[in-house]
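Quick one: structure tokens for this chain, please?
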Amino acid sequence: MSLRVEEAGPALIPVMAALHKMSFPRPWGREELAELLAMPGAFALMGFEGEAPCGFILMRAVAGEAEILTIAVLPDRRGAGLGQLLVEDALRRAQDKGAEVCFLEVAEENAPARALYVKTGFEVSGKREGYYSAEEGAGANALIMRRALAKDGGGTGGAQS
């Protein structure tokens, strides 16, 4: 099956909410996703395998900076390159909107997500202790990751899928 990425507007919020629910223990609902997508500079991309929506990324690019707000890929589709395709496409679009750097926060123990971000050029630049709420006791730590975006219009420099 071929992978492709398309812009995802408000009409796809129910699909994004369903994908987020299948990907996270504390998923964002339709209202949260709609509020985030309505923020200045926010945009979403939907990833498809054939005709089936299998993942999405929600990002914001404003005032020279971009932030990956969330990315979700169906558990049974992880490792097939869709996450990388979503990140790389979103970074190009953020750069087109004037972003020179991109940030994100990821749970310290989320090794697969961290590996994806390292593969797409991100580096750890900080840590937030107890950033994520945990079911039992203390919260999980978040790593702050950063990636400079090319200024010459030459793309993100990441590997292509």
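The longest strand covers residues 52-62.
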